[in-house]
Amino acid sequence: MNISDLCAEIMKQNYTSILGKNYSKLAILLFLKQNNFQLKKTSLMRVCQFTYRFFRDNIQYGKESNYVILKNIEQYMPEDLTLIVKTELNEWVVNGQNVILLEEDSVLTNPSITLSDSDLIMAHSLTSTIIKQNFGEEVTYKEDIDINRESIPFSNYDDYVQFIANTRLYNRGFETLNYCCCCDKTGKDLVCLHINPLLDINDPNNTLIFCYEHGELYFRKYFNFLKSGKIKIQQNNNNLDNRMHLSRKVLLNKRKFLEEE
Ligand SMILES: [Zn+2]
Question: Which residues does 29 contact at the CB level (< 8 Å), separation at least 6?
Fold first, then answer.
């Protein structure tokens, strides 16, 4: 096995079809590129998350896609992309050279292949060329969020909510929650707030989604959530209820940002 296998595998993929440009295949290519084409067993869910982020951060590409889910990505969550990602990965493997492999619910680079530095440089350069040829522009993508703490208008609720709404952090908030975590309200008016603004402000897990009203009460410290998921009401309000709590799924990666019991 050598570089020609990796490059051949990249070249053999269908980035366009009679239906147009295949942006979901592009997402797979960008995922491989971000990982320097070397994947240890990586869950399909992780590829779904990357793909979701790519389309959520670049709404224009989803609009050009053939998949309804990608066209309306704001109404969906990463796990909703499972079928699309599986389809694209299956096709990748079928058209490939045994470099990228699928094993049950994970994807990996064939462990028997060793890629040298020059192999990888070639693969990166080939990727750029293929993207330009098929999509008519250079598309690069990394998932990073780099909000500068000093730029966040923490002193005013509306300014703060507006600021976050224009960042990728807002998009990340919806990966685990697409309704108000207090009243289950859905819709366009949801806001994304930091759980604890004193901790890592760029960590997607340091977020919760609220309706506008509950967001404001959280911002004004009327209540907090404990590591158990239970609400801790600091100041009574008609819109707060002791039965409110975070679900297990929401708590999963957010505990470290929540208050000790
Ligand atoms: Zn609410």
Answer: 10, 13, 15, 127, 130, 131
Predicted confidence (pLDDT) per residue in 124-140, tens digit: 999 999 999 999 999 99
Total count of residues recorded for the chain: 261
Q: Rounded to the nearest whole angstrom, what is the distance from the C-alpha of residue 172 to the centroid of ligand 1? A: 19
Q: Tell me what percent of the residues of the chain surpass a pLDDT of 70.
A: 99
pLDDT per residue over 172-201, tens digit each? Answer: 999 999 999 999 999 989 999 999 999 999
What tokens appear for 214 in the block?
């509950």
Distance between Cα 239 and ligand 1 center (Å): 8
Backbone angles phi, psi at 74, to 5 degrees: -65, -20
**What distance in angstroms lies between residue 242's CA and the mean position of ligand 1's atoms?**
14
Q: Does the reported pTM lie above 0.85?
A: yes
The Cα–Cα gap between 133 and 37 comes to 20
Q: Cα(23) to centroid of ligand 1, in Å?
A: 35
